[in-house]
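Entry:
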Amino acid sequence: MYNYYIMIPERQSMNKRAIIYARVSTDDQRNNYSIPSQVAECKKYIEAKGYVLVGNCFVDPETGQDAISGIPAFVDDYSSRELSRPALDAAYEYLELYGYDVVVVYSIDRLDRDPYKLRTHEYGFLKNSAAVEYVKGDYSDTPDGQFMKTVVGAAAKLEYVVNKKPGIFQYPLFLVRERCLMNIK
């Protein structure tokens, strides 16, 4: 019996297929927060890179609500404290069934604020040959780039904890994260 191996060339001559993942923490936030702007920025990023937007979940570009048609996007209104989230799970399932090359997320804290869980999600996509790219922040696949990703994620987690318990830390933490982002752009 012979084993045949088929070499599949990397998608250099073809456009890469990309999905959008967006997140807010609660149902209430979904009604009046940033889903439309997250999706719009991710869509612009995808177009600028020449990727093809794919997906089987859709969002209304005006309201950010799930829709029968609209912009393909996997959108959660779940806290990042949850490792398993409906749209994120659907994105993994779509990857396994149909495949794509890139997950586009607006910023690190939209995928996860916890550096460990962030790496867990990135690895979940990577093990099925999909990279995660962020609109806000260009994190190279170098030790420096990975370190900056960890710092920005940790700052987002700290900011979340401080906002839940005011008075613990008075320095505006969003400035820490913004300064980190400025150094990597």
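Strands lie at 17-24, 52-53, 58-59, 66-67, 71-72, 74-77, 102-105, 131-134.
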